[in-house]
Design a protein that fits this description.
This protein has about 130 residues and is of the alpha/beta class. The protein is built from 3 helices and 8 strands. The termini are far apart.
Length: about 130
């Protein structure tokens, strides 16, 4: 008998405003698939290139806490990409606020990070050969 397999994953971020966050991920980060739920919207599933992120309305403002506020240089979401420089330039053209600029880490990953409306650090990395 074959065992069950994981087929994907999606981080969930608690946000202060689902509509503002959904618009940011769509217009700035290029997520094409945006499914909003609730009236008013309190949950959203966003997708780009077959990868997903979920956002949910926080019940209190103090429950929106980016990881970097708890531990320095810690992202909330990390996406692996096939061309970090190309994506970095796309985001610059879209006017995205860059949290930390494109660089190659000591562990040989070309990466950069952006900051979303709630201050979450979303990072993107490409393994160098």
């Amino acid at each position: 008998m074959d065992k069950a397999k994981l087929t994907g994953s999606a981080a969930i971020l608690l946000v202060s405003d689902v509509d503002i966050s959904a618009d940011y991920y769509r217009s700035k980060l290029g997520f094409e698939s945006v499914r909003l739920y609730g009236d008013p919207h309190d949950f959203c599933i966003l997708g780009r290139d077959g990868y997903f992120l979920m956002i949910s309305k926080a019940t209190a403002e103090d429950s929106v806490t980016p990881n970097w506020k708890l531990k320095d240089k810690t992202s909330n979401v990390y996406f692996w990409v096939n061309d970090a420089e190309k994506l970095y330039n796309e985001f610059l053209e879209r006017g995205v606020e860059i949290d930390y600029t494109l660089h190659v880490t000591h562990y040989n990953i070309k990466e950069f990070g952006v900051s979303d409306p709630d201050g979450y650090d979303i990072s993107f990395g490409e393994i160098q050969k």
